[in-house]
Amino acid sequence: MRQTLTQDYERADGRALRLTFAEPESAQRGGLVVLHEAGSVTDTARVLVSSLAAEGWLAVAPHIGSARAPMAGADVLAATDTTLAWLVDHDVRADLLGVVGFDLGGTAALVVAARRMLGAAVSVGGHGISSPASQGLPALVDIAADLSSPWLGVYGDDGDDFLEAEVERLREAAAKAEVATNVVRYPGARHRFDADPTAAEDAWQRTLAWFDAHLR
To answer: Which residues form the Dienelactone hydrolase domain (predicted)?
Structure first.
């Protein structure tokens, strides 16, 4: 695992943000914004940042919101824009920028992919498909057709018929976008993939393959 570091970053326009990042050991393939789950940058987010760096990506997680103030749509976009500026400052080309999110961060990653034009985006287990997951975040089916970044959604349905139907609704909505999209559903797996190592490994490989295919 690559070591994660945390620093405060301030843009030329005065906007500041705390970032947790990890650098690849060898040639840098591109830059990935990692959007964390509810609350703050957790150990799960740090492991994801470190694991992506081990695959050759400069990976960075902006600290958005807190346990007392959940992330909102405007916060997500502002933090992502600042983090993208940090990546550009670190010599990442614009066509090699992507975003990935886990849990509520997965929800946020789809929002970013619908509002910003990036090379690729991945959502893992993003909530709020038919109704908003957090204040200021839209229902995902309402914006999936507006995706402007190639987007992969990875979902477990918990063996629940309602969740299965929700994921299929999102698949249909995303298919209307003018960019490449794909939704992978793992029947019976939990959305965090913490009890199904086979599904977790497959989801990880699909995530890497998506970035490999679109960030080059």
So the answer is: 21-214
Instruction: Show the tokens assigned to 91.
Output: 């010599």
Inter-CA distances, 60 with 8, 17, 36, 139, 141, Å: 12, 12, 10, 26, 27
Looking at the DSSP bridge assignments, the partners of residue 102 are: 124
* 212: Cβ contacts below 8 Å, ≥ 6 apart: none
Return the closest-CA partner of residue 204 out of 48, 37, 1. Answer: 48
State the pTM of this model. Answer: 0.94
Residue 70 pLDDT > 60, yes or no? Answer: no
Please name each of the domains of the chain with its CATH number. 5-214 (3.40.50.1820)
The sign of the dihedral angle between the CA atoms of 31, 75, 42, 141 is: negative
Provide the pLDDT for residue 136. Answer: 80
